[in-house]
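S.,

Sequence below, as promised.
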Amino acid sequence: MLAILNYIVIGTGILLACWGLFHQLIVGGAVSMLGNPDEKEARIVIMAWVAQGAFMTFCGLLPFIFFVLYGMEHPAYLTATLLAGLAMSILAAHVMVVGFATLVRPVQIGAALEAIFGLLVIIKSLLVTFLLG
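The prediction came back faster than expected:
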């Protein structure tokens, strides 16, 4: 059961990484939604969208990379997945606090993926800690 949960976490992480790449690609649309922003506003939005997309991609790929390098039961894999899950949970909570209902659909989907990934990783980490630890 734990192996299946690990594969689900890795699959969800890869999906999150792909969404992060997509998030970076649609940055032009995000800027155009502002209407006619001045140059400083446009740069800030571009920076924020690209940074969030890159962070989603990084945290999504981290479990897969550590799985390939170390395997499922290595402490480095467990630590990396837990930190990535906690980071995505915090980012999802931030998006919820900022105003989930008022955000555009791609940001809402990204926040949902972040929350799902974070929740899965935290559940997996608790199972590993209390069942195997």
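The CA atoms of residues 40 and 56 lie 24 Å apart.

Coffee later?
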